[in-house]
Amino acid sequence: MNRVLLIRAAGLYLPMMAALLLAGVRRPGKRQALALLLSLLWCLCALLVVQLLNLRFEFWSYNVTGGLFRGMPVDLYLGWAVLWGVLPVLAFPRLRLWLVLVVMFALDLIVMPLCAPVVVLNRNWILGEAAALLLVLLPAACLARWTTDAAYLSLRAAILVMLSGGFFLFLLPELIFAATGKNSWPAVFQQSKFLLGLELQLTALLALLGVSAVQEFASRGGGTPIPFDPPPRMVTSGVYRYISNPMQLSCMLVLLAWGLLLENLFVAAGAIVAVIYGAGIAGWDEDADLGSRFGERWREYRAAVRAWRVRWKPWHQPKAPAARLYVAENCGPCSEIRGWLEVRRPVGLLILAAEDHPTRDLERITYDPGDGSGSEKGVAAFARAMEHLHFGWACLGFFLRLPLIRQFVQLLLDASGLGPQMVARRRSCEALMPTQQPAKVEAPHVVQIGEWRVSSYFWEEKRALPIAH
Fold first, then answer.
1. What is the DSSP letter of 152?
2. Residue 366 main-chain phi, psi, to 5 deg
3. In terms of DSSP bridges, do strands 72-73 and 68-69 run parallel, antiparallel, or are they unpaired?
4. How far apart are CA 368 and CA 8, in angstroms?
């Protein structure tokens, strides 16, 4: 048999047969099967990135014709994705991650030279191998291990966001380009930088809803949007106060914008597929699953918050406790923030004095969601408060809470003299404990008396909060 055909066939079928054999022996459960799928998808996206790097830096070359995808043999591409995305998960489920990297690196050092003459290694091929390990194998192994063990939720959610972006905005267009023979990337980068930057910013803005929804699932729900790894708690906070289907809506808008940017109707048509999937299969499954898990709470929420139509004002469950924002009374800038928020009549939010916190001294403005999940402080707390105003301010809040953005803005504020300041708690005061919830919350009443702005909340038992200057 021709050696080239033998190597190409072995590169595809040997990893696939090994994966099927290990799957038959291991019999992976639902979570591990999900981990395998996610790991494989990551490898498919990241290996294409490595190939683009290879075209630029020439780590190796392929001495073949026919069946190529971006200059890489499709059989070797798929076999490599199975080799790194599936086999390590099944073969080494409990081995330390760094040992998995060592084993797979050693295997590649042996296999890559044996692939000649199909694969021609250049002098710097070890650098390409190292890049592949860092960009492909390490994230795939981490995602698979953490999904199987339900660990490192925030990092796992961040990788899932990158995987979604890589699949819909990179791999899917590449597949369409390969099938149609029309590469739209050059046309995109040939337009003016100003126009390109504006279009990219618009696309990123449309993606904000989906990214914020994933973040909300992780921070408040304790899960991810992936099947078999859903949040154990019903999520109605953040972007879900305004729309019940933010991920599918965001995906549809992003694909439509991306297709227009690439001037490719097939990419834009992906938006139609996203709508059909979101309104059909996903919608039916979601209603059935969440209805059985949360019952009347879910039905009440869905009656008020639509799947594809964004509310302008946030929804707050009438019987649920209001969130609390603790703001220092003796801080000038903090008082300005409090007044600014109160005038805009936040929904489902009580603004209290930081000195009256029921359990501890505070050093920053603090947001307590009131649902048992963790509190947030500083920029994140202010961003959370903005989510209680209306959809316009909420979008700014979603942006401020994004990882890296939040830390950067907080660093700027701290450097400007607005850093943490310890606020002593008034232990002698009669503060409202978290378990004592108002029977009814009315909108804040603001009265201007001379140079004093007086703000108070009244409950059915007529108990008033401290007034703010």
1. -
2. -130, 135
3. antiparallel
4. 58
